[in-house]
Task: structure prediction
Amino acid sequence: GDSVTQTEGLVTLTEGLPVMLNCTYQSTYSPFLFWYVQHLNEAPKLLLKSFTDNKRPEHQGFHATLHKSSSSFHLQKSSAQLSDSALYYCALRPNSGGSNAKLTFGKGTKLSVKS
Amino acid sequence: GGIITQTPKFLIGQEGQKLTLKCQQNFNHDTMYWYRQDSGKGLRLIYYSITENDLQKGDLSEGYDASREKKSSFSLTVTSAQKNEMAVFLCASSIQYEQYFGPGTRLTVL
Result:
């Protein structure tokens, strides 16, 4: 079945340093990949989604590139801000018929940015 | 725009009790979902529904029932609450690729 593996647990960074949260996946079908962000006491919301290889989505300074060769969709940002502190989920959706309404989520990575 | 409303916001139950959580969306989305969120375990899919009166089991459906009687609403029932259970239940809806989440119901079982 489909699976998503993320950097586990807590990642602590100093403000201004680069962010990289890892996401790798396994899927039978060439999937769509997503990053969701959940700030404290809020609902998760979509941050980024993949399209095709070599097209890099960006939002709020974050970007991620889908690499099918390495089955990865790592989340990056050049300079962390205090407001980036949140829980980040990587998710995939198979690009196939049938049950393609279903997302598979990773376990989440908690990012804590300190001054 | 639209919104997803979940009720109640906090739910306290007793062991063995049957508990129902409700979700309403006004996006007019076809597909709705119920997830359970536990610290360190991510978001696990309990049930989803691709249209009114449709139900599809997720990875964590045992111990739960769901009902989709209208396009705009999706309810989840915990059939027998487990002692010391504590989790957040998130409802979501989607059209095409993006899922929109509600604020969650926090369940505590005494």
